[in-house]
Here is the input.
Amino acid sequence: MKIIIYGSQYGTAKQYATELAKRIKCEIRSYEEIKDIDSYETIIYIGALYAGGVLGMKKTFRNLQNITDKKIIVVTVGLADPNDKGNTETIRSGIKKQLSAEVYDNAVIFHLRGGIDYSRLNFKHKTMMSLLYRKAIKLPEEKKTAEVQAMIETYNKQVDFINFNELDSIIHNI
Ligand SMILES: Cc1cc2nc3c(=O)[nH]c(=O)nc-3n(C[C@H](O)[C@H](O)[C@H](O)COP(=O)(O)O)c2cc1C
Here is the structure.
């Protein structure tokens, strides 16, 4: 049995999860709704990136008992461009810290690009982004990574990088 679990605050990760569920025809749940994932053979976790963490992922995999024979797919959804190797390396090192070595070693990881609408951010997220932005613009050019550059360029805007075609390689892997 397959399941797609998503962790999404503003809906972009949920949009990818919903489209994938439609395409592969399987059960879909928010991480907040699911408690026991042991009974599923294939677990696809699609989570939004917040300060390097994948929303809800740690909590979801914490109680997984039986990893042998399970297929685990982790899909991150963030603003940073996944075509940049530095970005994906940063994301992967973050994932490694949030999962047990056993789950991490078993997981196939994919990265998708989401979007942001500053007018919809809650107070905490607006404050975090404002602090990050103010720090980022002071960095010398050579210290601005692709991730930092993307944040500066999109600051206070509404951007949407959602591309469902990117789901093809994930479907191919399932
Ligand atoms: C406070 C905050 C922190 C974020 N941190 C990251 C990050 O570390 N890496 C990244 O690629 N995107 C980051 N983002 C962008 C989100 O991952 C992106 O907007 C994503 O599409 C949100 O998914 P959701 O709509 O499902 O919540 C951050 C956004 C906010 C508001």
